Each structure stands twice: as structure tokens, then as C-alpha cells.
Amino acid sequence: MKIATFNINGVNGRLPLLLRWLAEAEPDVVCLQELKAPQERFPESAFREAGYGAVWQGQKSWNGVAILARGADPVETRRGLPGEPEDVQSRYIEAAVNGVLIGCLYAPNGNPAPGPKFDYKLRWFARLKAHAAELLALDAPVALVGDYNIIPTELDVYKPERWTDDALFRREARVVFEELTASGWSDALRTLHPEERLYTFWDYFRNAWGRDAGLRLDHILLNPTLAARLRAAGVDRAVRAQEKASDHAPAWVELGRAGSRRSKASKP
């Protein structure tokens, strides 16, 4: 099974690029973020024609998450994180696909920090951690996939010293990621590429792509059951170079069948 995450930054505006990548990469499951489309404007029929079933939670102008499944219809199990009923931002959706439970998330950016937006980010992550603990307790394969808006380590940012006070790299945010991985979730890309400088995001400004001034914000966390099946992981960087590209590139993992042995890490 190949699972990918892609912050598409506008699903309708970048639909041709997304469909082209789906045809080339052939992921079995795709978690999309920043749909920037209301519920009724999600292009379900285009994905259906491309061979993908979908569940989604849209939101006008901002946010929005979706799970696509190749040759299957995801079975939705949750919409939104528990713990703050008044939160109407479309940032989490969960579904079962071919026996694997997939949580697709788009975490808050949190800037400017400190401030109300950063406070909301930390509250949102507290809710995610609580739900992640419940998922870990399940006797099932689970993946938490998406744009975490966290730069976990200095290896994940082109110039760490420039990001010290940014909400993406502040210590409070990085601790959240450390606590998730310490609790039993495996950071799939880092598991197979422990020393490589990996990026999944390059800003549109200041020629960030041309300078390779990137950040790793998009992560695929696997529970122990799925971590044992991890075979390969990478980033489809070339997608970021295409015309009218998102500022993110897809990240992905390949999983073997239960009981299969891990292969050598693939290059991102």
C-alpha cells in the first residue's frame, strides 16, 4: 500500500496537476489539505473518473481536508477532532481504507507567535495528542498523515537560526511532535532517511524553490503495526517545479503486507 500526503493549496485551481500526479504516482491513499473549497465544490466526479473514491470536509476560502482511495470508497469514521465542539475549522477527517485507519490532518499555522493563533495551535495539538493516544490503543493499523505545520528538527529547515521565533519551529510546537513520536508513533520519512535534509514545502517568495530554501512540514506518522510494514518513503520534489504548482510537494510511504520484511530505503 502506498500512502501519500499532499497540501494542494487549492484543489480546484490545481486539479490538472493533481490528476496528473495521481496517474503517474498511483498512490493507494492520498490525504489532501488546504482544499480551499466549500463542501459542494469539491471535484468528486473528477476523482471518481480517475479511479479514486473520496471523503472530504470542505471550507470556503480556507482549510479543508480529504482522503482519496484508489479503487475504493473510504469509510469515514470521524470528522473533526474531539474536545472543542465550537471549533468549526475543517482540519481533520478520518476514514478506513482497505483495513487501514487513516487520519488526515491540516494543523494550524499559529503565526504570529505568541498570540491567539498560536494559543489555538497548541490547543488543537493537545486535542490531537489525546485522540492519537486513543488510536494507539486500537488493535488496528493506523496512520496520522498530513500537514502538521511543525518543523521537527534543525535538519528539516534550510536555515534554522532564521526560524527560532516562528510558530512552525518554536519549542512548544516541536515538543508536541517529540511527544507524539515518543508515545509510539513513527516518523516514517525520518525512520528511513535519518540523516538526510528533506523538505516538503518551499515558499513562493524570495526564490525559495530555486534556492532549495525549504521546510519539512508534511509528515506521515505510523503506529507500531504499520511501522513494522514500512518499506520505502520519499518526497516527489519534481511536482513542486511544475507550472502553477502548490508550495508543497507530495510525501509518501510504501507499506508491505503484514509480516513482510522491510526493503532498503528509497531516495526522496
From TrEMBL:
SUPFAM superfamilies reported in the protein's UniProt record: DNase I-like (SSF56219)
Signal peptide, first to last residue: none
Metal-binding as UniProt keyword: yes
Protein name stated in the entry: Exodeoxyribonuclease III
Binding site for Mg(2+): 7, 34, 147, 149, 247-248
Chain ranges of the Endonuclease/exonuclease/phosphatase domain: 4-248
Keywords associated with the record: Hydrolase, Magnesium, Manganese, Metal-binding
Family the entry assigns: Belongs to the DNA repair enzymes AP/ExoA family.
InterPro entries on file: AP_endonuc_1, AP_endonuclease_F1_BS, Endo/exonu/phosph_ase_sf, Endo/exonuclease/phosphatase, ExoIII-like
Transmembrane annotation, as ranges: none
Gene3D superfamilies to which the protein is assigned, alphabetical: Endonuclease/exonuclease/phosphatase
Record-marked site positions (Interaction with DNA substrate): 248
Keyword tRNA-binding carried by entry: no
A GO term, aspect molecular function: endonuclease activity
A GO BP annotation: DNA repair
Site entry: Transition state stabilizer: 149
Segments forming a coiled coil: none
Organism of this sequence: Hansschlegelia quercus
Record gene name: xth
Cofactor binding annotation: Probably binds two magnesium or manganese ions per subunit.
CDD domains: ExoIII-like_AP-endo
Site (Important for catalytic activity): 218
Enzyme Commission number(s): 3.1.11.2
Domain of life of the organism encoding this protein: Bacteria
